[in-house]
Design a protein that fits this description.
The protein has about 80 residues and is of the alpha+beta class. The protein has a domain of about 35 residues. About 30% of the residues lie in helices and about 20% in strands. It has a 3-stranded antiparallel sheet with strand order 1-2-3, with helices on one face.
């Protein structure tokens, strides 16, 4: 699995009673929610993947990754 290379911002929304995750590099409409920060992050990564797929399909420029994380090695 490739590391997700975009910064994710997660905040609590009292109004929604959920954590809201956003990927600023892809615009503030690239967001998702969840009952925990981890679930919100997982969901926004799925949404971001869809955003990137549509952008590529339409020949739009793909924003440069703004985070660099290495996956932890187990074993």
């Amino acid at each position: 699995m490739e590391a997700f290379r975009y910064r994710i911002v997660i905040d609590w929304s009292e109004r929604d009673k959920a954590f809201i995750a956003q990927v600023p590099a892809l615009g503030f409409t690239c967001c998702a929610d969840g009952p925990t920060p981890a679930k919100a992050a997982k969901e926004v990564m799925i949404v971001a993947g869809m955003f990137l797929e549509v952008m590529a399909k339409h020949g739009e420029p793909i924003p440069a990754p703004d985070a660099d994380y290495e996956l932890a090695k187990v074993g």
